[in-house]
Design goal:
DHBP synthase; single chain; 32% helix; alpha/beta
């Protein structure tokens, strides 16, 4: 024993579940430092006899890819240190440490998985301190095996040996396991009877896939439906989703390159530890059978969602397919959720779908987590768009596996709980200046999703030490289920309920995600309840943390039948045509006469999303929305084919704060139907339609930017875009060009989804400022 000055270092950041303590121990040994390291709930405590700055400098090279030091502090104390550096048992403290996300199997573990001489050969749960499931297995903090779903699997002697060996990369790896002691897979038939176990279960699954089976596979954070892309027609009929896009999992990157255009930012995202689904533009020169499969997977769209295997499970599945003579380069893999329910967690829930077979394991899923969906950054330099986790450049359509949790700074230190909107709901809690947002939850019109929303709120309040929230935030809409939930929770806790207007929350989410305060923001969206009781969705704001002031908007137009127009967008097209002085032929005389009679009683909106739906109906004949966002997504494919957008044709004066819609619609009809009466879908998306549609949309974006830049501080010179329409690449490109043409800097989403998945972030940020 020796006496020495002792330093206590407290480290915050992503330091739980990422091999941080073993890294500290190895670094200390290399520097011949004495002391200890311990998880303390909200941080990691290091005691050492070395000057702290020198110790931390020596530590950084030892950290694994998932670890992230955000800040550290120290104090010097008198004390005694003994012997070698030690890892002490964790203690339960106040919890606000970021949880690590689930990350893809690393190269070293993958080599073990395929090495016949290795004891983990063909073992699907192979992982180490640098990779594997984390968020989906953690029950509570501090992060130790007994606080995860791995507590049900005691380590065997060989795993215990690796766990205790400072030279092993599984030193103190809490999720360590092997075929002798860990979770196992089984293949169940349609009757839920066991057909095979272990590696044989993968072979049986592969044989069923080869035979045209529609199967369900249990992964890390939920269950997926899988099939051979050649059987997509059968899958769509069985699953009841005739047109909704399905993601494809490709065996390797080389096949992705043969099927879709792969810019550098997309390539980096695909192979990152997050392994998101990336939306890619289909290649026109891909082999015929590949083009056919992609069209079946995403009908009528120019893009396709593709991702790469991220777990041992997926690698073994492709290996098994090769072993049974079905060497498929990709498979359909989409979330398995019964109608109106969240993603299934176990075979009991998944069996409601009635699959041909089930590949399942016996490890409990602690937290549901769907796949992330990403649009890679198409702009490069010249825009403000922060890199996301793992240096990913792009913006998330759905932020979940691999990207969550991702703590972000907010402009207050309050404890706030927020519930988002109605669709694409997420839950956010804030504490000590950070926001922690849940993975994608779903559509709270369904009771099961409401239950999941409440579970997510409870989990995040507990894990991040925000159980004693100071306020609850929600949307302004009087009938959203999330508003009801928020009101009840605020009443139970006797804290304020703070209502945040939908599109102001979008603008605030952009400020949080971009770390930019003070800019003009255009919010192009579906519909959201406005201050005036009307449905907003094409809004222009001057945004700062002091105020988000509405300075302009799209001209109000009608939604005949209210929500019915969302599902029948030709009704909106008919209303606009009547207002423009034309009688649009929608193919149903009875409905046409009803719409004409009810023209003056339509619900009024300023929604850019609904305007795009009307364009999709008029130009492409999309008269029924079979899935969320379908008309606008179909239109995006048309807009991307424009070569000479006729912008000047649609140039109209801005009337005060209002950007003209009806006048532009009139011009569109006049140009499209010179020799006849306007008729739904009559132009079938031809080249002229694409140029006119892009010209109309570009002129609207131009006017919105023009209105938004007035009064913005010249020193700031920034203009942002948010809302569900901000996923549309041709519209984003138009926005970026219009902003740059005025000498300003575009601000784009990157760390927070532009759509409703980011609403809870904006709500929580604004609510804390309002207390």
């Amino acid at each position: 024993m020796r006496k020495a000055d002792m330093y206590i270092i407290r480290v915050r950041g992503v330091v739980q579940g990422v091999g941080f303590r073993p890294s500290v121990a190895r670094a200390a040994a290399s520097m011949e430092a004495s002391g200890y390291v311990r998880n303390d709930g909200s941080h990691v405590t290091i005691a050492c006899d070395m000057e702290p700055a020198r110790f931390m400098e020596g530590l950084l090279p030892h950290l694994g890819p998932m670890a992230r030091v955000e800040d550290w502090s120290f104090e010097e104390v008198d004390g005694e240190l003994e012997g070698p550096f030690r890892i002490l048992p964790s203690v339960e403290g106040e919890m606000d440490s970021p949880l690590p996300p689930d990350t893809a199997i690393c190269d070293r573990c993958l080599r073990e998985l395929t090495d016949r001489a290795d004891r983990r050969f063909l073992y699907p749960f192979t992982n180490c301190t640098d990779c594997g499931a984390r968020y989906t297995v953690i029950d509570s903090l501090p992060y130790d095996r007994q606080r995860t779903s791995m507590k049900d699997f005691p380590m065997c002697s060989r795993c215990q040996g690796e766990y205790s060996d400072q030279g092993s990369r599984r030193f103190h790896a809490q999720t360590i396991s092997c075929p002798d002691c860990g979770p196992r897979y089984r293949f169940l038939g349609s009757d839920l009877e066991v057909r095979a176990e272990g590696w044989d279960s993968f072979l049986e699954c592969a044989r069923s896939l080869k035979g045209g089976g529609r199967l369900i596979v249990k992964g890390w954070g939920g269950m997926h439906i899988i099939c051979d892309p050649a059987n997509l027609g059968s899958l769509r009929e069985w699953y009841g989703r005739p047109y909704k896009p399905f993601a494809l999992m490709a065996r390797d990157l080389s096949f992705v390159e043969s099927a879709a255009h792969l810019p550098d930012s997309a390539r980096k995202a695909l192979i990152s530890p997050a392994r998101p689904i990336v939306l890619l533009k289909k290649r026109d020169d891909a082999p015929g059978w590949v083009r056919s499969a992609m069209e079946m997977a995403s009908p009528g769209l120019d893009s396709i969602g593709i991702y790469l295997p991220y777990s041992g499970i997926h690698h073994l599945l492709f290996r098994a397919l090769g072993s049974v003579g079905a060497d498929l380069p990709w498979i359909v893999m989409t979330s398995a959720n019964p109608p109106g329910e969240p993603m299934a967690l176990d075979v009991g829930e998944a069996s409601k779908l009635g699959a041909d077979g089930y590949l399942v394991h016996d490890r409990r899923i602690s937290a549901r987590c769907d796949d992330s969906v990403l649009v890679s950054d198409p702009f490069g330099d010249g825009v403000i768009a922060r890199e996301g986790p793992f240096s990913i450049r792009g913006f998330p359509v759905r932020k979940a596996r691999g990207l969550v949790p991702d703590p972000l700074e907010v402009p207050h230190g309050r404890k706030i709980l927020s519930f988002g909107a109605e669709r694409n709901v997420t839950v956010t809690v804030t504490r000590e200046g950070r926001a922690y947002t849940s993975p994608y939850v779903g559509n709270t019109r369904h009771p099961e999703v409401v239950d999941y929303t409440l579970d997510s709120a409870g989990r995040f309040m507990y894990l991040f030490g925000a159980g004693d929230v100071e306020a609850v935030a929600c949307d302004l809409h009087p009938r959203y289920e999330t508003v009801k939930i928020a009101r009840e929770m605020a009443d139970e806790r006797s804290v304020p309920l703070i209502r945040i207007q939908h599109h102001r929350a979008h603008a605030a989410s952009l400020m949080v995600g971009s770390a930019v305060e003070g800019m003009g923001v255009i919010v192009v969206d579906g519909v959201g309840y406005g201050d005036d009781g009307l449905s907003w969705g094409g809004e222009i704001f001057h945004a700062s943390w002091e105020d988000i002031d509405r300075v302009g908007h799209l001209q109000y137009f009608g939604l005949p039948g209210g929500d019915a127009s969302v599902y029948h967008p030709e009704r909106i097209a008919h209303w606009l045509s009547m207002e423009a002085g034309s009688d649009l032929d929608i193919g149903d005389e009875k409905v046409r006469s009803i719409l004409a009679a009810s023209h003056s009683g339509a619900v009024m909106t300023s929604s850019m999303g609904r305007l795009l739906d009307a364009l999709s109906a008029l130009l492409l004949g999309v008269t029924w929305r079979s899935y969320d966002g379908e008309p606008a997504m179909r239109l995006e494919s048309l807009l991307s084919r424009a070569r000479e957008p006729e912008i000047e044709l649609f140039s109209l004066p801005v009337r005060g704060r209002e950007v003209d819609v009806v006048g532009r619609w009139r011009i569109l009809l006049e140009e499209l139907f010179v020799n006849g009466s306007p008729k739904i879908g009559d132009r079938s998306g031809d080249r002229r339609s694409a140029d006119l549609a892009m010209g109309m949309v570009r002129s609207i974006i131009s006017d919105m930017v023009e209105v938004g830049m007035k009064g913005v501080d010249d020193n700031e010179g920034k203009m942002g875009i948010s809302g569900g329409v901000a996923y549309d690449i041709p519209i984003l490109e138009a926005f970026v060009e219009e902003v740059k043409a005025r000498g300003m800097t575009p601000v784009l989403h990157s760390r927070v989804p532009p759509g409703d998945g980011g609403i809870s972030v904006g709500q929580a940020a604004l609510a804390g400022r309002m207390l």
